[in-house]
Amino acid sequence: MLPQRLYITCHGLGHPAADIEPDARRFWLPADLFRHTLDVAQVLERDTGISVQFTFDDGNLSDHTVALPLLRAHNRRALFFVCAERIGRPGFLDRARLREMVAAGMTIGCHGHRHVSWRTLSDAALASELSSARRAISEVTGQPVVLASAPFGELDQRVVRAAMAEGFRCLFSSSGGFATAQTGLIPRNTLKSDFEPGRDLPRMAGLPQRAWAGVYDTARRMKYRFT
To answer: Which of 92, 136, 155, 202 could lock 86 by a disulfide, CB 3.0 to 4.6 Å apart?
Structure first.
């Protein structure tokens, strides 16, 4: 059976702040583009039977001001991965907004304590990064934190093992394709500012991509020793 779950990754929505680095700007989507993506996803789900799941990285303030109202209008829930150190900083989600999002049915996951590549950390530093972030985010939301996404999508076998040892049920990457399992290593597809929903989303969800993804995701899980 072909895989059914397609995870989409967004970052900032709307107009990026002036201090956003040029390289990061290409991951910000206009609000109308995200609205159109939600519309196209709804049609694809109806016509193909696949499930399109939206996730957000970094904990940008636009997760609350732009994404949340649009998700509510489309009767959708999403996963939001935040950096514990950024909570309450200008331009990022604060405690009250995170709790409002939880009350609205959104799931809050871990994007680390700081926004650093987990592959660059020592074993001890990686364990501390994961555990401190998980505790801090859980304290803010009042909910267990069992989902994590790797900053920059960078992971290896050591990172996967550390995340599972910390108690995370799912570790989300940015490696593309469909997910073939509901736990463990979950691939996502990152949207950039040149994304065209009517063209690109149906292509991502096409039968050839689903067939390829089934083989590739199985091989990827074996590579990271998470079968």
So the answer is: 92
